[in-house]
Amino acid sequence: MKTALMITTAMVAALAAAPAMASEKFTFALNWFPVGDHAAYWVAKEKGYFAEKGLDVVIENSKGSGDSIAKVDTGRADAGLADAAVVIGSRARGTTVKVVGIIFDRTPMNFFSKASAPITKPSDLPGKTVGAPPGDSQRLVWPAFANANGIDPNSIKWVNIEPSAKYVALAEGRADAVSDYTTGLPLAEKAVGKGNAVTLNWADYNFQLYAMSIMASEATIKDRPEALRGFLEASYKGWQDVMNDPEGAMEIYKKAVPEIDVVALRENMDLGFELMKTQTFKENGIGAIDKEKMCGSVDLVNTYMGLPTKVDCADAYDDTFLTKIELPFDVQ
After folding, report:
1. Least C-beta-crowded within 10 Å: which of 105, 127, 278, 289?
2. Angle at 96 between CA 202 and CA 164, to 5 degrees
3. Tens digits of per-residue pLDDT, 39-94?
4. Per CATH, is 109-204 categorized as 3.40.190.10?
């Protein structure tokens, strides 16, 4: 009896002294400085969805899709956000990244100009200056859009501008236009005035392809499959919460990232929702990848981006890590 008591006491003492099970670190590279469609990841972190999957997620900013892809491909991040077209193009240049989930199911690629000097159609662009950082997704995909619309890709001049300074540059006339998703309208209007920002939505000119996506490297896919699966499920639960309670989501986001403009990013977030209210997401869950659309995006990139080698659709994406998370919107 005395021996059993001593063993039990020793076991209790050992358990008390043992450190708590460590969470697995997982670095997620955003594509940009904080914008409305990043709120979901902070919500997932704050509500413990990542922790429930045993993950200690670190969220980092980037300077465009090219930058976030470079981080993931070189192992500085485990997964990241990037435009799907840029992910596809990067495969032809030797990266190992693949799309593992979709964010925007509709194409939001776009140029903003000022109402005083509007650029409303592709033929308005030759001879103009467009501001964007080198890793900007629209800048990288521009040759495909230009060729698809019969424009010389070299007919515009790109001006290097930091992500957070694009709209100020437009307002100050340092570029005739700046590239950004249509969801950036509230930020554009904040800089140039309400009603003074003009859009050139690429989707209106024969350019329908996948846009913002979550991507991961083959190393993450091969070596950390359960971490990636858990990360995606937690992230899309974050998106579901943001859709169900946008105001609560913005409170969490503001607490985590105090510098954000809640009013502008709330509008920015709402515009993002419109890109996600699709039949594909309704039937298959938030983030679902449609094979036909993905392969159509690959064909478009192969045809127009002047890649060194053609990309096989099967190499561009992997949809086996997705858990169905219901879209809480009605879809017409």
Report:
1. 127
2. 45
3. 999 999 999 999 999 999 999 999 888 999 999 999 999 999 999 989 999 999 99
4. yes
